[in-house]
Specification:
Chain lengths: 404, 350
């Protein structure tokens, strides 16, 4: 690779991927849809900001080509794992499994190409329960996901959630005191704090006024760490080709102290990249994205949080977290009434949380155990990543706005 | 079963006021008919479409000159070429081979395909403070398309949308045809015509069950949105339908003064009830006056209620675009519609 090949001032990003999709409908035993994709292509960013997308290998005559991606799973193996899992669920499941293995490289000037290999998976779709409730399915992360699918089938966690949703009632609107279980807390932390800490793509908006802003109560301390071995994301070089230097502290004592940057956003703000430039595919420009957002736990057990809550809501699970401007919302997949500091077995589903980004300023206590999210999918600017980790403890809040 | 392969190539260059030009040269082969699946392969010679890049820069400058100054920042021009070929048993059968030029501004499709230039629809600009909330509301083609797209999304999603009221005179067709050639592929995997599918006929749902998440046509989606090959189709919100064509059997007179919604974007995920839209508006006045409101205006509306208040079409169907922040631009066609609503009826609440 040389400057002559890349073109002066140009940055070439290349990708070679294999993708396998298996679509399973639990009501049609034995049949499933398959789709395989062999992708090779790239994106050329000019020094003037222009871009050129292409499919196929690099230009004829180049001395560089990415390696063939790993073969990955056999379709039959994936289909069997998905069928085994959906077989434990009551109701009709329609889900799609994705496995993607890829090589990417960033080439610029005379520097040696930075090659990165990755493997991600996802399972998404929905289940219609016997009583007609539609429950979104979302699991994703790094690797093939086979172990996670087997573990899920073994544990029966999602099957139990479906049972609870199936007998749930409509969520009453209001602003009840709430304890969020770690999976629900992860969604709120991700939307309210994580996205707030991402710099604007290409630095197109100056967000520097946010630094020092109180985004949560003083009990919150967060870092973003792309090198976390057990995290959904795990990389040493981001999609800009910038090496990671470890965790970036973003929230201290509830205040935003630093942004997560891609190369372009950092350049626009006169700072160094934090190696958070991530792209869904090589055709997308890298933009500032979380890698693994880690919220430091507190000390209380969940029972203690519920005991101190007294009356209110226990949020088991949220889906479809979504931020727009200073607002955010998420669909309540499953909630439970709390009376006298105890969970009651009275379940609710179907409403939404509708809040400001500073919703976590109403958090008063954190659980002592933080858990990594099992759905690491995150969409932003039309780019869907499957490996955005969030690790959060249970959170007790004085109030949370819920509406049908 | 015989395997059918469709070769699709797209070369395009796009110019906007917001940034430097972009271009693409994509080639893919989709093979169908092997078991119950599709095989997708991307290839191509990696040749930058320099000629298209030069042409679009010149075209952009000419198009910008035709617009009022306040609208120029929103102008986008694209020039390209699309080709589809059916490959079977060693033979090639051309399906589509088309040059095109697209110009759009503020979510309004100014021209597509003809390449003969356009007249600016706007005659000037207007400060939003000068909008009279008592003016009647007219929906431009792109606003109609976006509204129906969101309404259909509610019906086909996890949201339990309440039973919609009849939509007087409206017909909505799911079609593989599009005014925008890169999204046009009205063929099945064997090259036969891909039939249209009515979703709403004369204001009534044709078959709501049919739109609850099934009926995916992956061949169409992959050929017209190649980036979808790189993510699960079920991750797309609009995965269970193709392009939309909207018709209206009723005619209505354009009021002498009105607020025209040039385009709008919903700002939340699918949910029932009133939702916030960010709208590009114009004020229509006597003698063909159309003043572009200089900033985006926040509105709040229940899509079903707006559709139920449609009085009729005040013009022919025209190319339209639904600019979805997640799904990207989806092109279709729709007529401008006169409603029984006033701008004040959609004023954004808290």
């Amino acid at each position: 690779m040389s400057a002559a090949e890349a073109g002066r001032g140009e940055v070439w990003r290349l990708e070679r991927s294999r993708l396998l999709y298996v679509t399973v409908d639990s009501s049609t035993a034995g049949e499933s849809e398959l789709q395989r994709c062999a992708f090779e292509g790239g994106r050329v960013a000019g020094a003037d900001g222009s871009s050129f997308l292409f499919s196929g290998p690099p230009p004829a005559g180049w001395s560089f080509r990415l390696p063939e991606p790993a073969a990955g799973l056999e379709a039959a193996e994936a289909r069997e794992a998905v069928r085994r899992l959906t077989g434990t669920w009551k109701g009709r499941a329609r889900v799609q499994y994705l496995a993607k293995s890829s090589w990417r490289a960033v080439l610029a000037g005379d520097t040696a190409p930075a090659l990165v290999e990755s493997r991600v998976w996802a399972l998404l779709g929905n289940v219609v329960t016997p009583n007609g409730r539609v429950v979104p399915v979302g699991l994703s992360g790094r690797g093939s996901g086979l172990a996670e699918l087997a573990r899920e089938a073994e544990s029966g966690d999602f099957a139990r959630l479906l049972d609870c949703v199936d007998r749930s009632g409509p969520l009453p609107s209001g602003t009840p005191p709430t304890v969020l279980a770690p999976p629900a807390a992860a969604v709120l932390v991700h939307e309210a704090l994580g996205h707030f800490a991402e710099a604007a793509p290409e630095g197109r908006v100056d967000l520097s006024h946010r630094i020092g802003f109180r985004v949560a109560s003083e009990i919150f301390h967060l870092v973003d760490d792309p090198t976390l071995a057990e995290g959904a994301a795990c990389y040493t070089i981001d999609d800009d080709g910038v090496p990671s230097r470890g965790a970036t502290e973003v929230v201290r004592d509830g205040r935003l102290i630093r942004f997560l940057h891609s190369a372009a956003s950092a350049r626009a703000m006169g700072l160094e990249s934090t190696a958070n430039g991530r792209a869904a595919s090589v055709w997308n420009p890298p933009i500032p994205r979380m890698s693994n957002l880690l919220c430091a736990p507190g000390q209380a057990s969940e029972d203690e949080l519920l005991d101190r809550l007294g009356e209110g809501l226990y949020l088991h699970s949220l889906a479809y977290g979504y931020g727009f401007g200073f607002r955010l919302e998420a669909q309540v997949r499953l909630a439970e009434a709390v009376r006298g500091g105890r969970r009651t077995g009275t379940y609710y589903s179907g409403g939404v949380i509708n809040e400001d980004r500073v919703v976590l300023t109403r958090a008063v206590e954190l659980g002592g155990t933080a858990a990594l999210n099992r759905n690491a999918m995150c969409g932003k600017e039309g780019q869907l990543l499957y490996d955005v980790g969030t690790c959060a403890p249970a959170i007790r809040m004085t109030a949370l706005t819920v509406r049908p | 079963m015989t395997a059918h392969q469709t070769l699709r190539t797209v070369d395009r260059a796009r110019a906007t006021a917001a940034g430097p030009p972009s271009s693409a040269s994509l080639e893919m082969v989709v093979e169908a008919g092997v078991g119950r699946g599709l095989e997708v392969r991307f290839g191509g010679p990696c040749r930058r479409p320099a000629g298209l890049e030069r042409a679009v820069a010149a075209s952009f400058a000419a198009a910008a000159a035709a617009l009022p100054e306040a609208a120029r920042d929103h102008l986008e021009v694209e020039i390209g070429h699309v080709r589809s070929v059916l490959l079977q048993d060693g033979s090639e059968r051309p399906l589509l081979d088309q040059d095109y030029r697209l110009a759009s501004c503020r979510g309004v499709v100014l021209e597509v395909c003809e390449g003969e230039g356009f007249r600016s629809p706007w005659t000037g600009s207007l400060d939003p403070a000068e909008l009279d909330p008592a003016l009647p509301l007219v929906l431009g083609p792109s606003a109609v398309l976006a509204l129906l797209s969101y309404a259909l999304e509610l019906t086909g999603s996890h949201v339990e949308a309440r039973s919609p009221a009849p939509m007087p005179g409206l017909t909505v067709i799911d079609t593989a045809a599009s005014p925008y050639p890169p999204q046009h592929h009205p063929f099945a995997s064997d090259g036969a015509a891909s039939p249209d599918r009515p979703l709403i006929e004369d204001g009534r749902w044709r078959d709501r069950e049919e739109h609850a998440g099934e009926g995916i046509d992956p061949l169409f989606v992959l050929l017209t949105r190649p980036d979808r090959a790189l993510r699960p189709l079920a991750a797309a919100t609009h995965f269970n339908r193709r392009n939309l064509a909207v018709r209206c059997a009723r005619a209505a007179h354009l009021p002498p003064a009105a607020v025209l919604v040039d385009s709008w974007r919903v700002r939340v995920g699918p949910r029932s009830g009133a939702v916030p839209f960010h709208a590009e508006l114009s004020r229509l006045g006597p003698g063909g006056e159309r003043l572009a409101v200089t900033t985006t205006v926040g509105l709040s509306l229940d899509p079903w209620e707006v559709l139920a208040r449609v009085e009729g079409a005040c013009g022919p169907e025209a190319p339209a675009v639904d600019a979805d922040p997640i799904e990207g631009d989806s092109y279709g066609s729709a007529p401008p519609l006169v409603t029984g609503l006033l701008l004040a009826d959609l004023a954004a609440g808290g």
